[in-house]
Amino acid sequence: MKLTFIGATHEVTGSCFYLEALGKHILIDCGLEQGRDVYENQEIPEPAAGIDAVLLTHAHMDHAGRLPLLYAQGFRGSIHATGATSDLCDIMLRDSAHIQTFEAEWRNRKGQRKGENPYVPLYTMEDAYNTIRSFVPHSYNEKIKLFDGVFFRFIDVGHLLGSASIEVWITEEGVTKKIVFSGDIGNINQPLINDPQYIKEADYVVMESTYGDRNHGETPDYIGELTKIIQTTFDRGGNVVIPSFAVGRTQVLLYFIRKIKADRLVTGHGDFKVYVDSPLANEATQIFNENMIGYFDKEALELVNKGINPITFPGLKTSVTSEESKGINFDDDCKVIISASGMCDAGRIRHHLKHNLWKSESTILFVGYQSEGTLGHIILDGATEVKLFGELIQVNAEIRKLAGVSGHADRNGLLTWINHFDKKPERVFVVHGETNICDLFTETLKTEYGFDAVAPFSGEVYDLLKNECLVKGKATLVHSKDEKKKGISSVYERLVNAGKRLLVVIQHNEGGSNKDLAKFTDQINSLSDKWDR
Fold it and tell me: How many CB atoms lie within 10 A of CB 322?
């Protein structure tokens, strides 16, 4: 019974953990690294074809974004998630594949002129579609048998529609151990979704620490602050441009703006327009509308029961095509523009920044975490000019951040979550935080609360039966993100992965009938004879 740490170790993104027990190989999350990448992640010790199942905490790409790559490398197991997470991954993985393909085409147009080798996308749309078909949806609080001796359950963790902590029970050598993976622990008092549910028992806990060094402060008056920003900006003739994550944060903003409009809090500007310029955000909003029961909180459901949709209102406009997106910047009316991506590193938001950053009458409003190295972080950090589409743009617009709007628990929220266990776990593994925060929060758990806590690096391996470290992780710095980015780099590499999968299939057929094994052997030999050079 071993646990290996792969990603989100001393970093915020790239969540991935590997469980090995009873001859089964299980991943918890398989996420993309986003923003600044600090440490080199170790490879998953088992070939993708040998992974039997994935348990997924939620649909954000730093937790789910490498699943199609896993499939491309030979994974053919099942992916277990809540129903809402499964629905959201349907759109988000397709969107991610589209971005990968678009980036490859763009790089190759430039690279061809320089004589560079072709750039191959991390994965294809076909990989995404096949991954989506591998999902098995489940409800919260349902204890499910994964394999003989392995059970799991999803617990609402209040971070995103469908997000979950995962309880895993493993019985090996007559001993049962319970491992809890926190996933991203939600902030309390968020609109639409429930507060995090707490878990009482665990032998081991793997928990996030994104805001382990700070508190959000008192719950802000989101409605009041957003109203003032819109009112002030419109009064001076500008637009409010909001870089927003398409899934989760956009729907929360719509919830706030519906309330502002219903109570007529912004005056003098009629039934002002609100554009959601993101096909992904529009599809995600539809999924929110289809997954209210079982996922929305009491306040939101009260609106639903009155026949009020909590995230739609008059004046809400959605744009899907690129022509519709471009048309927004030719609309002279004051307006709110909500567009992805939330960290401004890609997507349509960059066009809206190009048209509004230089205007002193406009406001750029940030409503979420900005990773170091992203354009959003650079703007929020006080840059006076930025480069967009090869052009230097002056930053004259008012730059604001809506305080406290975070889907992550703060330090107090994290401490509340871990201290709800009736008995201290044998060990707490602190992950999903910048390196100084991981270390600081780990030290807090140890010295102030008496936990046996550790912040592992990638590649660290623990024996969960003996509660001992078998292999120490490596803090290897990344020198170049492009060098580190590994996709299916060639057709030949796909062939190699197919060979690895064949070996796994052969191993799975051990003990089969002699007749079937002989037939299988003849088929392999025939194929080998055909291609042997």
Answer: 11
